[in-house]
Amino acid sequence: MLAGTFKTHKHHVYNAGKVNVLKAAAIYGANGAGKSNLIKAIDFLQEVVKVGFIKQSVNGHKFKLNRANIDKPIVFEIEFSIKKKIYSYGIIIDHISILEEWLYESGINVEDKLIFERKNTKSGKISIKVADRYYKTQKQKYLVELMEENLLKGNELFLSKSDSIKINEISNCRNWIKDDLIIIFPGSKFQYLVAMIATSEGFNNLTNDLLKTFDTGVNELGIESTNFEKFFGEEDDETKQDIIENINKEEYILFESKLGMVLITKEKSKYIVKKVVAQHKNNFGERVSFDLINESDGTQRLLDFIPAFDMILRHDITFIIDEIDQSLHPVLLRSLVHKIMIDEGTKGQLLFSTHESNLLDMAIFRQDEIWFAEKDKSLGGTQLYSLSEFKPRYDLDIRKGYLKGRFGAIPFLADLDDLNWHDYES
User: Fold this and answer.
1) What's the whole-model pTM score?
2) pLDDT at 148 over 80
3) Cα separation of 40 and 155, whole Å?
């Protein structure tokens, strides 16, 4: 998401130290072009960092349309900034073994600074090199040597040992990948909606204002409290006992019920279940509550996005959304994205894949914020390229040009004209 030299929408450009980065990236492409695969690859890397090891063989994920890839490892690398320092983290995996792993502070226009590098030697042993400047104690150096000998398994990340090694840069980079990169797939549900509605008046007001603005039929969201025993009934005593034990350790817990995510807490020595309800008005103007599962797919999808957009406005965080247009009306989606893009106070980044051509508008995005994914017709792999490569005029109707195939990344439909529907009637 590096910024080009364009002068439009200057507030879309953030300074990340030695480079400028962009507020957003919208990725277009035909079905099967590889848009979701890009996001799944990032999700895979994040999951490996979260758990700290390779769970099962990655060979099934290799690109199968090139036979040479059977014997090649898979490479992941991601660059990101923390407090205006640029870091590059990568891993090379084959089967369930990590062949190489590295973390550098990117020098951009000077030599990169090594933080650590891990490789497998020809004899099969693990070799770890950590830059001397990061050793604060002799104990840290001994620990790394022990990891080379036998503490670090072949399928484990050195990055996952950050709590033991206690090197700030390594810990910060692991935390960024785990916590500051948030991926939303079409089936993802925002688990903390009930907690945020129940505890944050500001978020509650923002959500209700947006729901009214977009004419969802929901008057406002509210919290409905129910007695613990009444909510769960007489079934599943073991689950209830587990919940009670966890609540006694925590302020509250979140539980996935048949009605969606609920918050369970203890108030005045009583266990209470809190759930979010959508309040409508009946023909007498009286409030009527509905469980969120009874709301439309579009309203539920909007409720999953509102926390993301709220965090993008207030925090230096990156959200990646696959198929942002799913279940949302094009006019509503355009208004929502436009509101984010025109706000000059945003701090985070938004990357999403979409088919919604109404967003192809240089009044919303810069040229370098619009991307296309196209499948290579001979090899089947995905090529990603930016609208900026075409150098379109600012007043060009990008949407019309895209639908006419000017920028590629649309379905190839030449044979459809020759299709005779009636041949299939029998």
Assistant:
1) 0.86
2) yes
3) 20
